[in-house]
Amino acid sequence: MTTGSPSETPPALVLDGVSVVRGGRTVWDEGTLTVPAGAVVGVIGPNGAGKTTLFQLALGLLPAATGRIEVLGGAPRRGNRRIGYVPQNYTAALGEAVRARDLVMLGLTGNRFGVRRATPDERARVDDALRRVGAAGYADRRMSELSGGQQQRVAIAQAIVDDADLLLLDEPLANLDLRNSQEIVTLLGELRRERAVTIMVVAHDLNPLLPVLTDAVYLLDGHPHHDVIGEVVTEDLLTHLYGTRVRVVRTAQGDLFTRSG
Ligand SMILES: Nc1ncnc2c1ncn2[C@@H]1O[C@H](COP(=O)(O)OP(=O)(O)OP(=O)(O)O)[C@@H](O)[C@H]1O
User: Fold this and answer.
1) Where are the alpha helices (DSSP H) in 48-99?
2) What sequence ranges are listed for the domain ABC transporter (predicted)?
3) What is the pTM of this model?
4) Among 104, 147, 211, 237, which is most buried by a count of CB atoms within 10 Å?
5) Which among 33, 36, 34 is positioned nearest to 3, based on CA atoms?
6) 56 C-beta closer than 6 A to ligand 1
7) Mean pLDDT, 10 residues at a time, over the chain (261 residues)?
8) From the CA of 167, how far away is ligand 1's center (Å)?
9) What ligand 1 atom has the least distance to the C-alpha of 202?
């Protein structure tokens, strides 16, 4: 299946017979899948199934025990600037005093933060990223003064400031209320429309993301799989995946949502 990307664009992620071991234990194995460029992908599975581990493999932070991994057409490597990453609980772990625009600047200057002055071009790119996520109005405020939704926007600005082709977002909707969560989902849809960026999102609650998801990677019985979203949001698959009864409901308006029980 393709997601409308030009044929010369390599897939965002390819796993070929990949297994991963942590602390002497196989987290998952037999990973063979292709995530097409331009997809918006929900990464789902129960706690501890290895969703964050998949991101760490793609980022070159963790080696595969077996098999071959390809990210944006090349081998995974640390510090790949074509990937924008927002770790789980990222904003909570930040230094209190950092200003929003300085955090975004880190996405361009890496660990050289504070060592040299940013160039005018870098400052313009930071302003542009803040504007694209709707955070320009609080660019000079400290992260500790921002709400969870505002902090998440700034974190996404940092991930996109260097024009990443692949965004890896680990639970970007955690701790957000309904409105903020919907706004972040709308933002992801806009980012995808602006440029053919591929977005992979770890999520425990699929519902807020369903309007924008095109695909899913799901960790079932110790193996990662990929499919288009319509094939994954089924009662049988989700019930098996989470080990609890999940219902899939389609409203008269055509909206799809899942609920337990
Ligand atoms: N640094 C580590 N050293 C050893 N084992 C680890 C390490 N980090 C994670 N693990 C183990 O790897 C497995 C997968 O963890 P991972 O964080 O990828 O799961 P996850 O699906 O993202 O979970 P959650 O939904 O709870 O965030 C778990 O069994 C976890 O205990």
Assistant:
1) 51-58
2) 13-246
3) 0.92
4) 104
5) 36
6) no
7) 62 98 96 96 95 97 97 95 90 76 88 67 94 93 89 92 94 87 90 89 91 95 96 92 88 74 71
8) 20
9) 22
